[in-house]
Structures are given as structure tokens and as C-alpha cells.
Amino acid sequence: MPKCTHRLIINSEAGNLETRDKLTVLIADDHPLVREALRQALDGEEDMEIVAEATDGEEAVKLASELKPDVAVMDIVMPKLNGIEATRKIKEIAPDIAILILTAYDDDEYVMGLLDAGAAGYLLKSARGRDLAGAIRAIKSGESVLHPKIIAKLLKRAMVAPLEEHKPSNILSERESEVLRLVALGMSNKDVAEKLFLSERTIKAHLTNIFNKLNVASRSEAIVKGLQWGLVTLENTENRLRG
Questions:
Q1: Consecutive 10-residue runs of the chain (243 residues): their mean pLDDT?
Q2: Bridge partners, 49 (sequence order)
Q3: Helix, strand, coil percentages, rounded to 5, for the chain
Q4: Which of 92, 118, 141 marks a domain boundary?
């Protein structure tokens, strides 16, 4: 679900105060032209507000800590602190912030490292402005911003990775576990709803509960943590799809 932030905005020209509910966005990129292009792409979106711009990874962490935006849009290659380390630090400080990587690099190793650090998804810089706005909305509504092949790689890697110790037991309800297994297959909220004969609203509510219980801000993070804790495995997702 989008986290509706109730922010007080000062209209200096009119000299009055307005209140608006918007998705708040932090932009982090060391290239001024890229930041300007991103701002122009999002300025026309009535449900979004760019609250700050960062020119390097350290500044991104500082601003994210201070402002707690709903979504941070970040590059991978930045001075002082790269996108992977900045993502990791932001998630440690504020797990509720969803991080969308916007980059020119599509190497799988980059993507996997970013997901391990807590990124919610990634887009290439060749994407159009409307794709960026759609990805931001998708992240906050529990939809995926990951290519299915990346999800498949996550599942396969989980088969050989050791499970985290001290994981909580029975943290998710049976229905929540079922929803998590299906989204790990790359299914959309609509597909999951049809599979389980439920409404999309109900699926979104289950995803919100899953995010809260796992202390994550996106579907991608929920899948990664589910794999780390053994809540999602390649075997049980394939079995559920056949069922």
C-alpha cells in the first residue's frame, strides 16, 4: 500500500499553508543532468513530491535518515559511497524506505548485490519517465519491479545458501505464507488474487501484513528475507504453482 504521508507544505508565493498527501521521493545521482531529468519526469505526477536530491552516497544516507522519504531513487556508481553500500545503510537506519535503483548497469551480480542490500527493485536509465513513476507506485503497492529471471536466480541461489540462524518461527500466517510463495514466483497481485479466489484488495492487505511482520518495505525485500529465513523455497513454490 502507498504510505500516505501527511506533510505541511508552505506556499511562499501565496503566503498560505497547504496539506497534501503524496508519495515522497529522494533522488540520488552524482550527475546534475540526470537529477534534472528525473525531477522533470516526476514533477508532473500529482501524487508524488521530490523532497530532496543527493549528489553522492553519503549525502543520500544523510538525507534519507533525516527526511524518511517513501522511496529513494538511486544510482549504483556514486562518489564517497556506492549505491549498494548506501542502500544497506539506509535500510539499517530506516527499513520503511523503499529503494529503487535506476542505473545504466544490468549485470546480474550488481542486481543480486543490491537485492541483498535491501533494494526493492531496479530500472535501467533507458526507461521512460512514465516507467519511473509507474515503478515508484508499483513498489509501494506491493507489485514487483524485478525481471522474472532475477526472481528465478534468487530462488536457485537460496537452494545452496545457508538459512539465517535465529529466524522467528511461525511469523506469517498460513495464508500470508501462501501469498509470499506466489509472489516469489513473479505473479502480480491480480494473478495471486485469481489463483486464491480473493480480491486484489485482500492480497494487498496480506502483503502489507507481510511487509510489517518481516520489517521490509517492498515485495522484493520480502522475497529475499523469505528465502533467507526458509519461508520460501524453490520446492514449495513449484509445488504450490502445480496445486
A1: 37 36 91 92 90 95 95 92 92 92 75 81 80 88 72 63 60 91 86 93 92 87 82 58 45
A2: 24
A3: 50, 15, 35
A4: 141
The model's pTM is: 0.73
Cell of 50: 521530490
3-state secondary structure at position 10: strand
Beta bridge partners of 7: 20
Q: Nearest Cα to 114, choosing from 79, 140, 153, 142?
A: 153
Tell which of 121, 141, 161 closes a domain. Answer: 141
Beta bridge partners of 26: 52, 72
SS3 46: coil
SS3 assignment, position 133:
helix
For the stretch 120-124, contacts whose Cβ atoms lie closer than 8 Å and that sit 24 or more positions apart, written own/partner, are 120/71, 120/145, 120/217, 120/218, 120/219, 120/220, 120/221, 121/145, 121/146, 121/218, 121/220, 122/146
pLDDT tens for 115-148 read 788 888 888 887 777 888 988 998 887 787 776 6
Q: How far is CA 225 from the centre of its chain?
A: 13
All cell numbers assigned to 133: 513513476
The set of cell numbers assigned to 112 is: 543480486
Q: Is 173 in the same domain as 94?
A: no
Pairing between strand 98-103 and 5-11? Answer: unpaired
Helices (H), the chain: 32-43, 57-67, 83-93, 108-117, 129-140, 148-158, 174-183, 189-196, 200-214, 219-228, 234-242
Structural domain including 40 reads: 5-141
